[in-house]
User: Fold Phosphogluconate dehydratase from Rhizobium halophytocola.
Amino acid sequence: MTADRRIEEITRRIVERSRPSREPYLERVRAAAIKGVHRSVLSCGNLAHGFAVCSPAEKDALSGDVVPNLGIITAYNDMLSAHQPFETFPEMIREAARQVGGVAQVAGGVPAMCDGVTQGQPGMELSLFSRDVIAMAAGIGLSHNMFDAAVFLGVCDKIVPGLVIAALTFGHLPTIFIPAGPMTSGLPNDEKARVRQLYAEGKVGRAELLESESKSYHGPGTCTFYGTANSNQMLMEIMGLHMPGASFINPNTPLRDALTKEAAKRALAITAQGNEFTPVGEMIDERSIVNGVVGLHATGGSTNHTLHLVAMARAAGIQLTWQDISDLSDIVPLMARVYPNGLADVNHFHAAGGMGFLIKQLLKSGYLHDDVRTVYGQGLAAYAIDPKLAEDGTVQRDPSPEESGNPKVLAKAGEPFQANGGLKMLTGNLGRAVIKISAVKPERHVIEAPAIVFHDQEELQAAFKRGELDRDFIAVVRFQGPKANGMPELHRLTTPLGVLQDRGHKVALVTDGRMSGASGKVPAAIHLTPEAVDAGPVSKIETGDILRLDATTGKLEVLVEEAEFAARTPATPDLSGNEYGMGRELFAPLRRLAGTADMGASVLY
Assistant:
């Protein structure tokens, strides 16, 4: 139990709400687990196909029910800097498995797209749905029924949530997530943002911009700002799906390799053939999900997880809501200042004490459930450590220090940067939305201004370049929801809105689309539901209407007389331009099936 009564109450209400779906889920997990080693149900022909390329010793081992077989699901490709290090992981994992008398096979690969490449491009309209495609692709890999446990190799934005959904769907299998780590620090993120703004204002050219970007994104590993990818890694550790200390160790280092080998061996140790059977569907429960939300707030994590955590929880029969997330944000203090919430990057965060210090502080202050199951086999207190490389090449875990290595980057829970996590739900006559205010200055938490309506982000960009936006306004960028065009991140809005705000204007954004986990200083009501294509209230807003965005009281309203607003006809723009090109036609069925943003914007649940 946590020491904080408020968190206990929120956890209990999630448990009660989830009971009708969680209990049948657990029954399915236990029914699958009780069947024992699943290869035993395969025919000789099935099994022969499954181990055809294995060595004679491995074939002999897999022909029985005693030696565990580890399935590897990999999101490797060498275009994504974060995923390129995974190229060498399968052989490393196979060798580690052999050392403990097990076998490991790559069960399947899943697609992995880089939102950094597709930002502002047609391909971004596939991004959110790639999460559910990844879950299905991983499911295909595991459907061969050859495996006693699984490890998942993934890092970035939709990839880890998709892999988690797959893992929980195969909840009878023990599961460990293995990260690749962040790239080393390059050009500081605030300097990169400064050059972007100069480019948007026409003060530097493309050559200077590309040089800046290349110095920031410069090598293998995750981008170093605290966006969705690094929020994923934090979540996997604080939810007990990583080995302790694994999240933020740089690629291609001895400690990174030691953690990878250790994870493979541990995955084989927690199969049904051993004494520590840890099926992931039972391991991850309501307390684990709450711990993940607490970590998100304490670190100022990505708004994308208001979608992903809801969808991930639903895969385990757990009904998490935006209200739960918002209420937890009111309780949990912000303890990290990592760009865009500060100047530091994730390497600075790790050097200041990282996940170990964060978890220790949150546990001491009663914000986390310690009595959870983890892949490490102990409660969450075992994660309050500082990972190092031992002399024999294995992982050494020292207790996390009592003091932060840099209080400007990572604070104690009792001395936070702000009293709440800064992620709130907004409600009102426009529906429901979320807003992240951890990087928004307090004087901008309330914006009341005329609306200017756009139907895509390019329209706003063009208006900015024409000099039409030098005033106070709230940009309404609609028809950007899951059903309209796949809910792309509207990352290109960050720079022009930031420029206008820096010029002294009161500006904000209201959208049924998404914003990047790397955005922050402009108040943005995002993920608005009902979305415009469903004739939500946002479809009736007209340019000139006064909107009020109040992040203090959690209100989002159009200040138009109720009868007049109700009588308006919803806008119905031509969306055919979103239906073809860059594979968008393949995703038409997913757009039709997509759920609402507050339910995770999924086609699966």
Remarks:
- The domain at 423-599 is CATH 3.50.30.80 (Glucose Oxidase; domain 1).
